[in-house]
Amino acid sequence: MKSDGRALIYMGNDGVSQNLLETLQLNDWHVKQTSNIDEAKQTMREHKLHVGLIELTCQHTESYLSQIQEMLQQYFQMEWIALVHSETGLNSSLKHIIAESFSDFHTLPVDPGHLLANVGHAYGMAKMKWDTVNIPDETDGLEQEMVGSSQQIQNLFANIRKVAGVSAPVLITGESGTGKELTAHAIHERSKCANGPFITVNCGAIPHSLIQSELFGYEKGAFTGANHKKLGHFEAAHKGSIFLDEVGDLPLDQQINLLRFLQEGTIQRVGGNEQIPVDVRIIAATHINLEQAVKTGKMREDLYYRLNVLQLCTPPLRKRPGDIELLAHYFFKKFSHEKNKTVKGFSSACLAVMRDYAWEGNVRELVNRIRHAMVMCENRLISAEDLGIDESSHHFHFMSLKEAKDRAEREAILNALARMHNNVTLTAKTLKVSRVTLYRLIEKHRININD
Ligand SMILES: Nc1ncnc2c1ncn2[C@@H]1O[C@H](COP(=O)(O)OP(=O)(O)OP(=O)(O)O)[C@@H](O)[C@H]1O
Ligand SMILES: [Mg+2]
């Protein structure tokens, strides 16, 4: 992303703008002019901008206005100023949007001195936001939806870009609420089948008896009640992607059909005998350890290897505490239309508590607590109490060095055991400790190697 010094974007009517833009340019502003939302987004992806000026008129449709609002939420680190033709002529949707999403407004024709002072101030505010929320510079669109500047999330972004370019299956692993579904979407959106459908199937939520017909469809007369032919999710996803969420929940007897598709690229509808070719990109996700599921006989080994061609892992929040503040600001802006009007942000004590809180539910928990607090908070700044976090609870404590070491030790052992299929001799070798030491540590950390 290019940085152009004091830069602003102007979106509006050419005729209105000429004098205004010249004044700004004469006063050392780099001005990007655009006439539509897509172009504006493209410009903001490529340039680091501080202020946005948008001309709003009563002729704008509700859908255009909601797209504007969405764009402003995406680019929350900028300051937005509305330009309107007459304050008295504003309809209620316009008033609502200006009050909620813009930091100021001017009535056209603007007083140049007043506007310059205003954009100067907005620049200062935006610069502060850019500096404090630490938004990564190399954003290319993907990060609009997935936020994070930590090394872990940047690695994930880089891997998303890499796997999006090939058509092999992708397996996304990660704890609950870490962004597996978001990652699947991001892969699809950057793949060559981005214009095709994206179909999500929650493998654990379909009743056992319906799985086959839901996934592969059925022919008329296949069973009582099958009065007409029905396409399954695979056929619906033709030329697009199918996201098999919680693929580890797929019953063993149904796994063979998925395996067949992965081997042959064809499906067979229930009650039919034709092999129908389907062109679908498979993206699967799981929060359980599939290697373990293979060991315990809950997952076919051949299916596991077919699914696990490219693996991505969504990191838990505790491994990237530096992202918490960024996410908090992002969600605050994203849900600002729902908030209590008096609420302006988070107290610094609250941000500190957030960084140290054990987010068991990861990003989903963070989003839910913030949305709740934004509605319930009666003060200007959200406190830890508004988030429902008790500062003195067991969740909130600074980790001692010993605790941090213990946690790292446990994790290293768990990882090595998983890689070595719980073989203690090999795990001990990998960790460069004796078998006796490893057994002692397994006991110390209460690790169950028979799972
Ligand atoms: N990096 C991120 N930036 C912005 N929002 C995020 C990020 N990661 C997760 N979220 C948000 O957190 C919530 C949970 O994300 P998602 O559903 O993708 O997680 P998941 O891993 O599929 O969860 P589960 O295991 O419970 O199905 C969503 O509201 C999503 O938008
Ligand atoms: Mg999910």
Which secondary structure elements does this structure contain, and how are they paired or packed?
Layout: E1 2-3, E2 7-11, H1 14-26, E3 30-34, H2 37-46, E4 47-48, E5 51-56, H3 62-74, E6 79-84, H4 92-101, E7 104-107, H5 112-133, H6 151-164, E8 170-174, H7 180-190, E9 198-202, H8 211-216, H9 233-236, E10 240-245, H10 252-264, E11 266-267, E12 276-277, E13 280-286, H11 290-295, H12 301-307, E14 310-314, H13 324-334, E15 345-346, H14 348-356, H15 362-376, E16 381-382, H16 401-419, H17 424-431, H18 435-444
Parallel strand pairs: 1-4, 2-3, 2-5, 5-6, 6-7, 8-13, 8-14, 9-10, 10-13, 15-16
Antiparallel strand pairs: 11-12
Helix pairs in contact: 3-4, 6-7, 10-12, 13-15, 16-17, 17-18
Magnesium ion is lined by residues 180-181, 245.
Structural account:
There is one protein chain. By secondary structure, the protein is α/β, with parallel strands linked by helices. It has 4 domains: 2-133, Rossmann fold; 149-314, Rossmann fold (3-Layer(aba) Sandwich); 319-382, Helicase, Ruva Protein, domain 3; 401-444, Arc Repressor Mutant, subunit A (Orthogonal Bundle), CATH 1.10.10. It is 45% helix and 15% strand. It contains 18 helices and 16 strands. The strands form 5 sheets. Strands 3-2-5-6-7 form a 5-stranded parallel sheet, sandwiched between helices. Helix 4 (92-101) links the parallel strand 6 and strand 7 (104-107). Helix 3 (62-74) runs parallel beside helix 4, helix 13 packs across helix 15 and helix 16 packs across helix 17. The structure holds adenosine-5'-triphosphate and magnesium ion (MG). Adenosine-5'-triphosphate binds next to helix 7 and helix 15.
